[in-house]
Amino acid sequence: MSIVSYRREFSALRGLQSPRTLEYSLFGGEGAALCVRLSERTAEGRERTSVTGFGGDDSSARDLLAYLYENAVPFDQGPDVIADAWAVLGGRQGERDGRGRNPAAHCG
Prior knowledge:
The protein has 2 helices and 4 strands.
């Protein structure tokens, strides 16, 4: 179940960008892990989805989601930005957060 979700629409600008929709969602995974889902849908109907665990607290995760949306972070860069944010907040990939959750696990 989604905790918070942001949706950004991009219009067709000839020679500059193709129309697409990016969606940034935060949800609770198995064991109450926080998970960030990035989805991209093109006008042609192609869809890509990436799910990344986030080990920060709920407030930090909401801030991260707003950051992704407000800066229109591209789909392909999303997982790296999430990993960088987790590192800035004091964690490292594979570590457990303060509540014993592994941020990379349980987000299937």
